[in-house]
Amino acid sequence: MLGVDVSGKMLERARRETDDSRIAYERADLESFAPPVGVFDLAYSSLAFHYIANLAGLFERVHAALRPGGSLVCSVEHPIMTAPVRQEWLADADDRATWPVNGYHDEGRRVSNWLAEGVVKRHRMIATYLDLLLGAGFRLDRLVEWAPSPEQVAKEPSWAKERERPFFLLIAASRT
After folding, report:
1. Domain spans of the chain?
2. What pTM, to 2 d.p., does this model score?
């Protein structure tokens, strides 16, 4: 098993939380990371691909790293989240929380203030994620536009506003 991150702090946290000697950790930038070819059964990414400029190249390298039948499972911020230039809630005429969706078809660089000031993300439409995956040779197995369920909101009421829009895009694809 191999864990990869550009952040040394994230790698240290992963080491602490997993405490598993079977996992090797490597500090690398996914823009240029070239995993070994044909050795993995699973590639997993959580909330990283929307930071990658050359996602087509990364998908090609990940596809090559998987054995036939291997899977890629990933999450990204839903494109509705990354599309607006100002990524913040608005209130409609009835004072209901509303997430603006503008600039959806204008893909590219976005700067947001999320967890830190000036975070650079890449906005892509859902169709672009799928086209890039299919172009790299993957087969789409599942696509989920995640938002908390009513049951989850009942347990965590602060998530109620998150039912107004999909928060994450979850993708499962496999190498054929």
Report:
1. 31-175
2. 0.90
